[in-house]
Amino acid sequence: MRTRGGEKAGRRSNPLAPITYLLRNAGKTIPLTGVIVLAVMLVAGIISMINSIPLSIRTIYSYSKEFTGVTPRGDATKTLPILEEIQAKSPYAIDRVIICRVTVTEIQSIVGKWPFYFIGMNDADTRYYLQRQRVTGIEGRLPRAGLPEAVISRPVAKNLNLKIGSEILGPTKEGGFSPNSVKVVGIAETDRWLMLSSIEYLREYHFPPIDLGMVSAKDPAEQPKLDQWADKHFKGRQAGILGYFQVEKDTNEMFATLYLILNVVIGTLVLVVTLMMSMLINIYQGQRLVEFGLLQAIGYTKKQILTRVLTETVLVVILGWVLGLFAAFGLLNLAKTVMMDPKSYALDVLDPVAYAYSIPMPLAILAVAAGTVWWRFRKFDPIGVVERRIV
Amino acid sequence: MSLLAARGARLRYVDHGKEHFAVDGVSLEVQPNEFLGILGPSGSGKSSLLYLLSGLKVPSSGQIEFDGRPLSQMDDTERSRLRLKEFGFVFQQPYLLGYLSALENVRIAEMDADNSAAAVALLNQLGLGEKLHRLPHELSGGERQRVCVARALMGNPKVIFADEPTASLDHRNGVAVVSLLNQLRGEGSLVMVTHDETMLAEADRVVRLVDGKVSD
């Protein structure tokens, strides 16, 4: 049937449905949701940005996943014997051993300049190395033997704003000295960070006069095992083993304290936001005493009223949390596009750890809200309301 | 058999360490379809008696019975269910939920979500058919109290309790509200508390209360 008000009678929504209260009291719902959105966005954003630092380290030095680096710790005569020993004793099949020279230059990171290896090797090894580093194509060409030329990868080109013909090392280049102006002649298409030149050029112009080695396992999946075996095998001897596992280990150690501080900061933030929310919830509930008293007086049980209020809180918290996650995702995408991508800085906009960090806050708010409601209802007397003693 | 009965009901309270009785040994019966007026001056305990009869308060001693069953044998949930299903309430102040329309405020008297037609019919009978979707702040004091009357009448309760329902209204509106309550209560009984005898002109019976006791 149709009522005089023009609406269908029957099959209407329940006036006491939590969603009805939330929608019709937007002036209260929006601030509560907004606080949660901002807090979740802040937490997920901070964690993602902080996580981008170790992620950048792992990304920038991920080229080391493909090789076990070998140094003779200053004794140039030891390089070959060490490499021969690896070939002879490794329990894992070796695909290739590369002799190389290295000098150190710098790349830019979100927290300043970081050292980066400028590696020289012969043409055949360079081709093998690039293939191993998942290069899909090269703009330009490979460096020629003995000439001040370099091939770099796309992330390095973006990071240092280099093009074909740009100088990557030079006599006046801060952080990247070479007696000659070393020009970029090729840019390799890969997500790995690479700077390569000819071994002849580095032998001729760069210190120290020590060849290093790079050993690749036949099966790339066995490379980490080869790293670990070599590290254990040469422990205590005049041989340095460099592998990706050390990047992982050093990064974890380096950031352990930072994460401890971060946990305290996030914990404090959760506490502050939870206190703020509990105060807001308390104020809003205080303004609803007449409603609670009236409902109880006409026959609704405490449990029904409590369930309704808690459902409202759960809806607000879930809505705030979900919107907060979307807001964080949007903000991180913006930061990635505007700030990170142009310099090839790593940022995982879907970092699960960052989003997981946002979970305690809605849970804490929910717990405090439930506690507040329960406390208020513990000795609530509807007579006080209908007699206007407590309103 | 009476529908509702108080048997030696007392309600004790302590004020500054001294014991008082808001209701002191009251015995009375409410018959089905009866309009019982409870008259008394301010502080005579008439509201307290109403709270006892409606199960909103539990007597310190004595008994309240509904349909022959003592309310003291019911737990909180049962008493709440009784109030929602069998009783209707009109309080001194026209308490309405500010974010719900007149129609929705009436519908909350029943948990059944499919009760709009009955609520609309009641509001029409109470002259509020054009204001179904108005929010409480868009209604006058008299209109708000009529919405409360409609809420109390929802679901055809067996007993309607009215606690000074005319207190916030002028005399003309007050008389109109009581008259509407009386006309629309159907088979239900009406127990109304007031200090204004003129409001009980339509009552079947009037009980006078003085200092918590029924005065003959």
The portion of residues forming beta strands of chain A comes to: 15-25%
Number of strands of chain B: 10
Main-sheet strand order of chain B equals 6-7-8-3-9-10
Structural class of chain B: alpha/beta
For the largest beta-sheet of chain A, the strand count, sense and barrel status come to: 10 strands, mixed
Total helices of chain B: the number is 6
Q: What gap, in angstroms, lies between the N and C termini of chain B?
A: 23 Å
**Structural class label of chain A:** alpha+beta
Explain the overall architecture.
The complex is a heterodimer of chains A (391) and B (216). By secondary structure, chain A is α+β, with helices and mostly antiparallel strands. Chain A has 2 domains: 18-58 and 251-386, no CATH class; 68-242, no CATH class. Helices cover 53% and strands 16% of the residues of chain A. Chain A has 13 helices and 10 strands. In chain A, strand 2 and strand 3 form a beta hairpin. The radius of gyration of chain B is 17 Å and the shape is globular. In chain B, helix 5 runs parallel beside helix 6 (171-184). The model of chain B has no long low-confidence stretch (mean pLDDT 92). In chain B, 29% of the residues lie in helices and 29% in strands. Chain B has helices at residues 46-53, 76-86, 102-107, 116-125, 141-153, 171-184, and strands at 4-15, 18-30, 35-39, 61-66, 69-70, 87-90, 159-163, 189-194, 205-210, 213-215. Chain B is α/β, with parallel strands linked by helices and 216 residues long. The interface between A and B is large, with 36 and 40 residues.
Layout of strands and helices, then pairs:
The complex is a heterodimer of chains A (391) and B (216).
Chain A: H1 18-24, H2 26-60, E1 68-71, H3 79-89, E2 94-109, E3 112-121, H4 123-132, E4 138-140, E5 149-153, H5 154-159, E6 167-169, E7 182-188, E8 195-198, H6 199-205, E9 212-217, H7 223-233, E10 240-242, H8 244-286, H9 289-298, H10 302-340, H11 352-357, H12 360-378, H13 382-386
Helix pairs in contact in A: 1-10, 2-8, 2-10, 8-12, 10-12
Chain B: E1 4-15, E2 18-30, E3 35-39, H1 46-53, E4 61-66, E5 69-70, H2 76-86, E6 87-90, H3 102-107, H4 116-125, H5 141-153, E7 159-163, H6 171-184, E8 189-194, E9 205-210, E10 213-215
Parallel strand pairs in B: 3-8, 3-9, 6-7, 7-8
Antiparallel strand pairs in B: 1-2, 1-4, 4-5, 9-10
Helix pairs in contact in B: 5-6
